[in-house]
Structure formats: structure tokens, C-alpha cells
Amino acid sequence: MRINWRLKAILPVAGVLLGGVFIFIWVTLSLQGPERQKVILVAAGGAVAICGVTLVMLAVLFQRPLEELHQKIAQLRDGDLNVTASFAGRNDEIGDLGRNFNEMVRQLRESREKLHEAHRTQMSRAEHLATLGELAAGLAHEIRNPLAGIAGVIEVIGRDLPENSPAREVWKEVQQEMRHIQRILNDLLDYARPRLPDIRPADLNTTAEHAVKLARQQVLSRPIEIDLITAPDLPPVEHDSGQMQQVLLNLLLNAIQAIESSGRIDLQLQSRDNCAVVTVTDTGRGIDPGQLPNIFRPFFTTKGKGTGLGLSLAQRIVQAHNGRIEVASTRGTGTRFSVWLPLRKPEPVAAYSK
Ligand SMILES: Nc1ncnc2c1ncn2[C@@H]1O[C@H](COP(=O)(O)OP(=O)(O)OP(=O)(O)O)[C@@H](O)[C@H]1O
Ligand SMILES: [Mg+2]
What we know:
By secondary structure, the chain is of the alpha+beta class. It has helices spanning about 5-30, 35-75, 95-160, 165-190, 205-220, 240-260, 310-320, and strands at about 200, 225-230, 235-240, 265-270, 275-280, 325-330, 335-340.
């Protein structure tokens, strides 16, 4: 039978009180002289004994489990997840407390196990990726030099071709493919062996102009318009112009690749919230909302020829500049990437005296 803990505490106390009152009334009404004294002594002794028993009961029923709980919580805090409350088998609210406590500890134990498992998997994946990265970087390094040689030879051969030779078209295509392979190899090497940016104040408009110029080379024969909207009043921005050019070029190339037939790309510079902001907006196919969280992950690509390093590299470079990249995209309408770079904090105005 389940007895409420308040009842368990109150019953013995009420028993003592009632017994005492009953004996007192009986003694005062019915007995006289030594008889009366004897009964009073027995009654007092009884009352003391009942009080003692009550105290012991209270200690067993409440004090002990609460102390045990206190101690187990301290053990739990120290990281010992093998604790259990021994009073969980009791059929009252204190037992409920014990069972809930044990259940909570069990769940904690399970979550810690899962966390450890996830950590182990992640560690072994990271080790795998690191080894793969080393391998890829080594390969890229080995391929890059002979490729530069081949590119040189192809350049020479092409120069010797007669102006009206049909092979000229093929020659241009081969050159373009060469540049593509070289860019992939460079991205791979940059990703595997990042170098610290050489950050110094420079005109971000000029950096953007260079990136746009290179991107326009890629769309000479396609109906894609690339517009550059500079911010002439933009103060010098602390950045590594080579690396930032690479970031903007990666964004522009992604924009070009997202446009199927004709379209438009705007690269705009602005100064906003104490930052220089470069936005690259395209009218391309947009990004699937399900893929959006993955696009900055290394090797994530939806393209047959992509390596999936462009955006992860761009993000790493921007973060090394204390900046950030944001993206907003609507499927079928287009995508906007925004690169935020902090503008140098204004120098404190020096106090001067007359
Ligand atoms: N402007 C964009 N419009 C649509 N999708 C985009 C755009 N930019 C990036 N993406 C998506 O994000 C993915 C990752 O881009 P990222 O530049 O990292 O790699 P990639 O372009 O596939 O390959 P790489 O840049 O290494 O040649 C792309 O494959 C594409 O699906
Ligand atoms: Mg890319």
C-alpha cells in the first residue's frame, strides 16, 4: 500500500500526542496518591520512548535519503555517472525521487556514451581527411610543375600555328582547360598548406577590379554581363590583396557557373556598419535550401568538374581577415554572397592644448 510521506511523518507524532493526552486525562480523573505517580512515570517514559522512535523513524524515512541524495549529486558533479539512489525501491514520494534520480543518471550516462562515440568517429574521420589532404597536396605539388612545362610548350606550339588554322580553336580550348587544372591544383595546395595573409591597408576597389577583369576573361564568348560598382569613397581596407582577389574570383566563377545561358553578375562595394562589404549577386540557378548548410564544407560540390574547395578556401581567407561571408539564395532566381571585412577602427583623436 502506498502511504503519503506527510502521513508517515504525522502519524507517529499524532500518536504520541493523543496517547499523552489520553493518559493525562485518565490519570487526573481516576487515580490518587502513589498509584497516580507510578502511572504518570510510566506515561512519561512511554512518551519519551515514542518520541525517540518517532525521531528514529523520521531519520530513517527522510533524513537518510536526503543526505544520500546530497552525496550522490556531489559524486555526479565530479563526473561519476555510476551512482544510484538506494532508496529508489520505496513505495512513496521519496522512492519516486530516487527512481527519477536513477533515470536521470541513466540518461546522462547514455548521452555521454553517444557523445564519446560521436567524438571518436569525428576524430577518426579527421585523421582520415588529414591523411587524404596530405596525399592530395603531395600529388598536386607533383603535377603542378610538369603541367607548367606542358602549358609552356602548348603556348609555343600555338604561337607557331597559322592565323587561319582550324587548330587555333582547339589550342584556345586546351589553354583554357590547362588554366582550369592549374586553378584546381592551386586551390588544393592553398587549402592543404594555408599561408598567413599579408594584411596591409590597400584599395579594395582595385582588388575587386582585378578579380572582375580575370572573371570577364572567362565569359568573353558568353552572354554574361559582369558589372563592377565600386565605392570611390571607401577608405583603405586592411587586406591581403592577392588572397582577397582569389576570394572574389572564386565567388565570381561560382556565379558564372551558376548561369546556364545568359545572365548578369553584379559585384558591388559598399561601406556599412564599420565594415567594407563586397556583394556578388548573380541571376543564376540559385542554391537548394537543403544544400545551403553544406556549401562551405571542403570538397562539397554539385558540379561534375568542381573540387568543392572554392568556398571553403574563401571562407578561411575571409575569417583570417576577421571578416565573414554571408549567403542568400533563391532557387531559380539567383544568389548573393556578401563578404564583410572590418574597416580599421578610427584612430582616437589626439587631445591638443592651445
Ligand atoms: N553562386 C552560386 N550559385 C549557385 N550555387 C552555388 C553558387 N556558389 C556556390 N554554389 C554551390 O556551392 C557548391 C560549392 O562551391 P565551391 O566553390 O566550394 O565548389 P565548386 O564551385 O563546386 O568547385 P571549385 O570551386 O573547387 O571548382 C557548388 O558546387 C554549388 O553547388
Ligand atoms: Mg567554386
